[in-house]
Amino acid sequence: SMEELRQLFGDFLARADVAAVNFDDPEAAALANRAPTVIGFGIDSSEAQIAVAPGSIVESATALDATILDRRDNSVHALALRVPGRHNLANALAALAASNAAGVPLPDAVTALASFSGLARRFDIVGS
User: Fold this and answer.
1) How far, in Å, CA of 31 to CA of 15, rounded?
2) Distance separating alpha carbons of residues 18 and 22, to the nearest angstrom
3) Where is 41: in which H helix or E strand?
4) pTM for the structure as a whole
């Protein structure tokens, strides 16, 4: 049941030293208070600590650029993804929050993501 899943994930968060939580997802955000320390991330959430600056997303057929806002210190970081789609932006935010939780400075993680070109054969252009 959903209640059982909430309990299981909440218990998992309670045992973590720090948790990266998707604040765009209402179920995940509702469980965030179970973790001792939370790094919230999200594209649209005004509560996310690692967020996308409003109006900064620029999409193309093969890439996505956005400005990442770290609300903890109000710093901004230009993110250039070599993969398309908002779902990849959401995955990038999750990777940024998780790497930051592991001690990687956010600017270093943003820079590292620029070299990720996706999985082999995924999004390869084979004709036009």
Assistant:
1) 13
2) 13
3) strand 38-42
4) 0.89
